[in-house]
Amino acid sequence: MTLFDRVFSGNDAVYGLTEGAIDAAIAQHGEDKAVSFPDTAYSLPCYYSVTGSKVTTLKELKEALGVVKTLMTREKRLNDAFMSGVATALCAEFIEVLKYIDGAVPYEEPCYGHLADAVIRELGVPLVTGDIPGVAVILGTAPSVEEGVALVKSYQSQGILVTLVGGIIDQVKEAGMNTGANVRVIPLGKDVTAVIHVVSVALRAALIFGNVTPGDAGTLMKYTMDRVPAFVNAFGPLDDVVVACGAGAIALGFPVITNETENIFRVPKSLIVQEDVSKFNATSLEARDIKIKITNIDIPVAFASAFEGEIIRRKDMRVEFDGSRVDCAELVHTCDASEVEDHKITVVGPEVDEMEDGSKNSIAYVVKVSGKNMQPDFEPVIERKFHNYINCIEGVYHTGQRDMQRIRISHAAFDAGFRIKHIGEVLYTQVKNEFDAVVDKCEVVIYTDPAECTRVRHEVAIPIFEKRDDRLANLTDESVDVYYSCILCQAFSPSHVCVVTPERLGLCGAVSWLDAKATYELDPNGPCQVITKERPINEELGAYEDVDEAVQKLSQGALEHVTLYSIMQDPMTSCGCFECICGIEPFSNGVVIANREYAGMTPLGMTFSEMASMTGGGVQTPGFMGHGKHFIASKKFMKAEGGIERIVWMPKELKEFIADKLNATAKDLYGIDNFTDMIGDETVATDPETLVGFLTEKGHPALALDPMM
Ligand code: SF4
Ligand code: NI
Ligand code: NI
């Protein structure tokens, strides 16, 4: 059989199954039965991306199958094979969506099945920073458990996001490997059709970040090929269905690497035979042109971004350090060059060996740095990265910051030889790696002696934190001479530009004005550039000729005007990875804000995902705006429309998170006490009528404001 025959026959087989499954579902439920995947605003995401039509009922699903049939041409040309591959993928999506009828939960631990829109938005920043350098799709059953696990681990140690389909899931489980989105190994499902759930991620990325018009299949495939660094590893023997799915992957630009040698012909850079599974990793990275940043740190356990989300449970921990109970601190301290001995690491106090198993202890580490270009403003920027550095250590867990950090070291890490001094090694190496433009010398002192920790915390760290907070409190948009642009997300959203000011951080929540400033100083040709603010047009709107010029240039002409403080007039664009989305609520003259973690309904009749789908991809959408959590309490939040008194609803969790600062701002701006009590949440209302009733009762100021549209 030729490869064409195999693709066509696999496609026909899946088509037959799909038709049968849809007919059976119609016979059982009737053709008006609703079909959908949970937590997505894109209907059947793959079908919608490719055709531009949404499918909501079994009847429409049946009609859609007719459209799929038109892709299944049978000439022996490459394009016919690719389109049959796409048709196979769409059939897989149809089969998968039937599993979700009536709100069923078809996948159970450890499998994920369909992935929510919010998951894709979370991937935005790590993908653009290269923190996640690629996405591997591993399909089938490895020749042995050891080879399968070794392959998965090899990607994991490179930070690559791994998705698993088929027998490999049981193999990984058999080996006792931890899986889950938090360690970047995501078992999708055991049926081959489950592979559609990762395809769905890639296609939604094009809609969410790329502003690709649904139905524009050409642009869609170009986007996935150019910007989604995915590839497939398929273990032989391959059946024709897998071969047909592989053709679909290649159509999207994802190379397929397999150890199958029979009835396969090779397509350069696309269909690659690699008989040696231990070389799958290298072959895949080369085929997809993925470069891995290697960090060699001299510690006895692995260090990789994939371990950032790893959690160490109480029963698995050897020791714990807990700033909420005992004196702890983490600090970057700028010193004179003569006071710093490069790469010196000192532990003052007991090592882990001398601490009781399962005990709670003090820890304080001071990272002393010196450098001609070092500025105290960079201290908090470097310090905030400690969380990420320490978390990347396999078997070590870190939360919190400043003097409230908490660290756990697992039994496994301890048994492997990991000690406190290695935390110093990690901090030293990473600070030197990432901040080499400003840090010439770096020395780490780690205190575990409780009295020393108390001294460092109260006499050294806290006074410095207080000084910094004063500086931050005085950092307003008016008090600085320049703003910064950030275009990191252009890797996925080609025309998106964030303008970062002291009072308006980047919408991802990860880039403050100080971060942007540091990024600029570290790399003057990098993603953050200076924007002057010498020619204001309208201070209420936050409109400047300088800002307009910068966004015009940085968006390659896609944007002409951007205001900093308005949601209605030339609002800032969104890439897709925003922490929150804000949208107009017409009945109350206010706005509703939803954060990405919130999965429920809002009074707009939309979920976060649905609100989020109203904007993104670097386009301006008056009435909807993506933003960071900390922007909510800012005096500049929607200043042009009246400011925070427009906020009428937020999920409870977000409201509580921001309450102190938001209340302080409301008091300052309008003299209102406990403003957050006036704001609705999901426990009060998820529809506009109940919400307006609540706001009326509370005397919410938005009701008296002019309508926004
Ligand atoms: Fe992306 Fe804006 Fe965050 Fe930069 S500041 S990483 S462009 S969302
Ligand atoms: Ni104390
Ligand atoms: Ni982004």
UniProtKB/TrEMBL annotation:
Q: Recorded GO terms, molecular function?
A: CO-methylating acetyl-CoA synthase activity
Instruction: Using the record's annotation, list all stretches that form the Carbon monoxide dehydrogenase subunit alpha ,N-terminal domain.
Output: 20-101
- Gene3D superfamilies from the xrefs? 3.40.50.2030, Bifunctional carbon monoxide dehydrogenase/acetyl-coa synthase(codh/acs), Chain M, domain 3, Bifunctional carbon monoxide dehydrogenase/acetyl-coa synthase(codh/acs), Chain M, domain 5, Carbon monoxide dehydrogenase alpha subunit. Chain D, domain 4, Carbon monoxide dehydrogenase alpha subunit. Chain M, domain 1
Q: Where is the CO dehydrogenase/acetyl-CoA synthase complex beta subunit C-terminal domain?
A: 465-709
What enzyme class is recorded for this protein? transferase
Q: State the Pfam families in the record.
A: ACS_CODH_B_C, CdhC, CODH_A_N
Q: What is its EC number?
A: 2.3.1.169
Annotated source species: Blautia ammoniilytica
Q: Which domain of life is it from?
A: Bacteria
Q: What is this protein called?
A: CO-methylating acetyl-CoA synthase
UniProt entry tagged with the keyword S-adenosyl-L-methionine: no
Keywords linked to the UniProt accession: 4Fe-4S, Acyltransferase, Iron, Iron-sulfur, Metal-binding, Nickel, Transferase
